[in-house]
Design a protein that fits this description.
108 residues, mainly alpha, 5 helices, 55% helix
Length: 108
Amino acid sequence: MSEAMKKTAAEMRLLPDLRRMRVGAVLHRVMRVIDPFIEHDDRHRVFDRLFELFMQEGVEVLTDATRAELGLAARDGEGWTEPKLRIYDAIRLQKMLETIKFTIPPKP
């Protein structure tokens, strides 16, 4: 098999760059919110810096619909899932039931 045929689809650019698409979608939302607070001359510089940051750090919006499609637990209004709440409730209960150890200093 030739070297050209060994390349993956991503290497041959047959697949879209999902990271770039997702960063663009998030950045579009962010820029719509902050645009009124940015000087006209600074918009491109702010956009470029945020784009670079998001590409380096990775950013993605995971909507409730996407979570459902992936079979992930739903989040409540504060972003917690039921399994995560159960874990933290168990930890909190365990801490509350632990014996409190204290020492009384001897009298002088």
